[in-house]
Specification:
Blueprint (H helix, E strand, L loop, with lengths): L1 E5 L3 H12 L3 E5 L8 H7 L2 E2 L2 H4 L5 E4 L10 H5 L6 E4 L5 H4 L3 H4 L4 H9 L4 E2 L6 H6 L11 E4 L4 H13 L3 E4 L22 H10 L2 H16 L6 H17 L3
Parallel strand pairs: 1-2, 1-4, 2-3, 4-5, 5-6, 7-8
Length: 250
């Protein structure tokens, strides 16, 4: 498959490595220009291109940039053929993206993205950490295999992306349409908690906007006080916080 990736942060870079290893043709871009990612291209066999070129002659375009920067991609998205599936991996973090009133008022993050780029998206790979992506993928059928939620309004597009997720070493749980994608946003029980398929289905059901906001408010200050936090420590913290609203009967 031909895959374009815009963004070379942790998740974007991890997906470049994963997909090239699986034999896909990958075009990768970032905001600083192809000359800044030649080492990644040489390491993986991906082709370093401009953002405008990343979505040309591909089947799937994955955006892996800060959510607040997504509207800047609209001119690029406008030039991409309609059959190309757009996948967004971003999450809303107010301390990084600034306050986005519509999201603060309850609009799902992915719905906001769709509104500002003018195209439907599939949301995937947002609810896991880079260490999970790079180190914890295992073959299909392995006991305890971690699952990833996928949200979107096109069943065909979700099936396509689900196949790619399986190749990255994870099971897939359908998290419903974009209108329900808030169930996999930061603060939800499904976010970065490394759950199996059955566990993840239950976690999606437990999502609640008010409780998820409380979880976010609890997690960030705690994490900020930890020095040299290990990835597994963060997963443990998020799992514990996922239980707190129920334990407090909130």
């Amino acid at each position: 498959m031909k895959i374009g990736i815009i963004g070379t942060g942790n998740i974007g870079t991890g997906l470049v490595r994963t997909f090239t290893k699986a034999g896909h043709t990958v075009r990768v871009a970032n905001s600083r220009g192809p000359e800044t990612i030649q080492d990644l291209a040489a390491e993986t066999g991906a082709t370093a291109v401009t953002a405008a070129e990343a979505g040309q002659d591909v089947d799937v375009l994955i955006t892996s940039i800060p959510l607040g920067k997504m509207p800047d991609l609209k001119p690029v998205i406008d030039q991409i053929p309609g059959h190309v599936v757009i996948v967004d991996t971003s999450n809303y973090y107010p301390f990084r993206d600034g306050q986005i009133e519509a999201i603060e008022n309850g609009q799902p993050e992915s719905a906001w993205v769709e509104e500002h780029i003018g195209r439907p998206v599939i949301r995937a790979w947002n609810a896991l950490g880079v260490a999970t992506l790079q180190n914890k993928g295992v073959p299909e059928g392995t006991p305890g295999r971690i699952a990833i939620p996928v949200s979107g309004d096109s069943p065909e597009a979700k099936r396509l992306i689900s196949g790619l997720i399986d190749q990255t070493g994870f099971d897939v749980v359908d998290a419903g349409p974009i209108a329900e994608s808030w169930r996999m946003q930061p603060g939800s029980p499904a976010y970065c908690t490394e759950l199996t398929s059955e566990q993840l289905k239950k976690a999606l059901e437990l999502a609640d906007p008010e409780k998820d906001e409380l979880r976010r408010e609890l997690a960030l200050p705690i994490a900020a006080t930890w020095n040299d936090m290990h990835h597994d420590d963060m997963v443990g913290l998020l799992r514990a916080i996922a239980q707190l609203p129920r334990l407090l009967d909130l």
